Structures are given as C-alpha cells and as structure tokens.
C-alpha cells in the first residue's frame, strides 16, 4: 500500500508524548509492533522516544533501541525529543532523523519541565544545532514553543513572548519552530492570530501545530491552524498524552479523528483509516490498563465515505 500524495503531514507522537504521560510502561517489543502498525497505515513521521534519564521517565529507557528499530522502516521520518545536548548526542548516535527540543514561552513551565530558564534553553538550542552541524548535518531540528497559548502554572502567556521565543530559537539554528497548546487553553481565534504572527515573524521556518483536546477544542483548533496555512500537525493515537509537568494537561488530539476530519474534507493525509483503526489494537495490548479515546473509531465512518487519499496495493 503506497499513498500517492499528501496535502498535510500527520506526525504521530503517541510513542513518545503518549507513553511518557501514563503510568504504564509498554514493553519494547510491543512498541515495535505498534510503530510498525502505524507505519503500515501510512504514517510517515513518528516521534518514537525521548532521550531523558531513565530514572525520570522509565517509559523511555529503551529510546535508543526503539529509534534503531524505527529506522528499519523505509521512508519513515524518525523523530525524538531531546531536552538538552546530551540527549541530542544520544539521539543522533541512535540514528534519529529529526530532533524536537521543548522550549517554553512560560518561564514557570520552563523551570518545571526542563529545569532551565527560557534564556538557558535558547543557549541549549545553540549547543544542539552546533553539534548537529558538525556531526550530523542531515538531521533536522525543531524547537516547538510549549505553553504558547497559556500555562497552568503561570496563567497568561504574552503573545509577544511566544513570538520572541520562536525568533530566538530560529536565530539559534533550529530549522523550524511550531506552536504547542501544552495545556489545552487555546481557542480557534487565538490559534489563527498567533499562527499568523508566527508566519509573519519567521516565515518558512514556521512549523507544526501541536494541539490538545483537553477542553474539547482540539479539532476546531487544528482546522483553524490549517486555515492559516499550517500543513503539519502532531497528534496521538487514542488521544494518549499531555505533559507530566503541566497539571491538568491531558489529551492530545486523537490521530484517528484528525485523519478522518481532513480526509472527509478532501484533504489528503496519506493515511489509510481502516489500517489506522487496526493500529489501535497493539496500542491497547501494550497498555491494557489505560483508556484510549477516539470518536470515529467508536462510531465508524459514514456510509459511502470516500477518503481523499487514494491508495494502491
């Protein structure tokens, strides 16, 4: 099964963002089965792990092995989260194609999440991009702006701070910077306003929308971002995930529902819905005590539904 073309990129973050936010630890071999099922459904970018100390996130202790496995899947962009230079070095050694660095617009969240000030994180981005340039210039670096729409610790996050942070990380050498609704505070009007400002500030370096469904606005916010020209979206199968360092930040946008929305609108994702629904089985098998979500997998697609993406066997 090969997808002909895509209009939007759906980047699956469940194996990292989803699994690190729950108590259960999915066995390494089960992670591989799940990642392969996502790949077979047509997902072509997967954030498979984060390179952090195992004592902090035991769910990610097998990061290097998972990256090395994912690299065996042809045409898959293997992404890893790295909070610092040490993590970036380990991810590059394991073979990651793309590094994502979490930088917070909220000063309070920055200290809680990575134990560094915003200014210290900008310096960390400089170190990582310098190392990348020297050791692995083919590796892409994304610095997503967390808490871009508000913070459970700090409250209001000034939009000027968000844009300043995005400008700083691009100046520090990151290839792209997107916006993350870490706490699920955003609304569609806010999404439109801030992504418009982001594009005006950093142009083609403007990156993905990483949005949460904490308050039920996940899909509406994704659509608002799309209408502002965003073509890359992070989502998590079954809606798993959030942020362990932002109280109440549950619920990534559900990949299955997001794919359905775009395909129903005639926007190609390159993902086969039936096979995507099948990929829920190894996820649930790997974390049997966790609840996974999704409206479309439960309701099914409408009679006569035709996906925008056309597949060939």
What oligomeric state do the depicted chains represent? single chain
Helices and strands: which structural class? alpha/beta
Percent helix: 40-55%
Major sheet description: 4 strands, parallel
What coarse outline follows from CA principal-axis ratios?
globular
What is the beta-strand fraction? Answer: 5-15%
* Count of helix runs: 13
CATH homologous superfamily label: Aldolase class I
Side-by-side strand order of the widest sheet: 2-9-8-7
Total individual domains: 1
Q: Radius of gyration from the CA trace?
A: 18 Å
Q: How is this fold's topology laid out?
A:
Layout: E1 2-3, E2 9-12, H1 14-18, H2 28-40, E3 45-50, H3 63-70, E4 77-81, H4 85-94, E5 98-104, H5 107-114, H6 118-135, E6 140-146, H7 159-171, E7 177-180, H8 188-202, E8 206-210, H9 218-227, E9 232-235, H10 255-264, H11 273-278, H12 280-286, H13 295-299, E10 311-312
Parallel strand pairs: 2-9, 3-4, 4-5, 5-6, 7-8, 8-9
Antiparallel strand pairs: 1-10
Helix pairs in contact: 2-3, 2-12, 3-4, 4-6, 7-8, 8-9
């Amino acid at each position: 099964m090969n997808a002909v073309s895509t209009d939007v990129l759906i980047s699956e973050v469940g194996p990292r963002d989803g699994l690190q936010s729950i108590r259960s630890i999915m066995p390494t071999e089960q992670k591989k089965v799940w990642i392969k099922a996502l790949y077979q459904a047509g997902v072509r970018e997967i954030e498979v792990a984060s390179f952090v100390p195992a004592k902090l996130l035991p769910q990610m202790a097998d990061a290097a092995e998972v990256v090395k496995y994912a690299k065996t899947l042809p045409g898959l962009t293997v992404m890893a989260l790295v909070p610092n230079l040490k993590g970036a070095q380990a991810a590059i050694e394991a073979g990651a194609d793309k590094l994502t660095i979490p930088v917070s617009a909220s000063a309070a969240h920055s200290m809680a999440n990575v134990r560094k000030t915003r200014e210290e994180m900008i310096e960390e981005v400089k170190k990582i991009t310098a190392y990348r340039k020297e050791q692995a210039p083919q590796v892409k670096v994304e610095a997503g702006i967390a808490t871009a729409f508000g913070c459970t610790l700090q409250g209001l996050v000034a939009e000027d701070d968000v844009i300043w942070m995005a400008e700083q990380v691009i100046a520090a050498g990151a290839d792209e910077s997107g916006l993350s609704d870490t706490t699920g505070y955003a609304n569609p009007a806010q999404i439109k306003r801030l992504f418009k400002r982001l594009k005006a500030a950093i142009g083609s370096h403007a990156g993905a929308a990483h949005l949460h469904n904490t308050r039920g606005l996940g899909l509406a916010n994704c659509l608002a971002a799309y209408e502002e020209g965003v073509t890359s979206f992070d989502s998590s199968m079954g809606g798993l995930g959030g942020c362990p360092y932002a109280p109440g930040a549950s619920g990534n946008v559900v990949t299955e529902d997001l794919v359905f929305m775009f395909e129903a609108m005639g926007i190609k994702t390159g993902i086969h819905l039936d096979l995507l629904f099948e990929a829920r089985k190894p996820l649930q098998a790997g974390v049997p005590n966790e609840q996974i979500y999704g409206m479309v997998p439960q309701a099914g697609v409408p009679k006569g539904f035709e996906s925008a993406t056309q597949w060939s066997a």
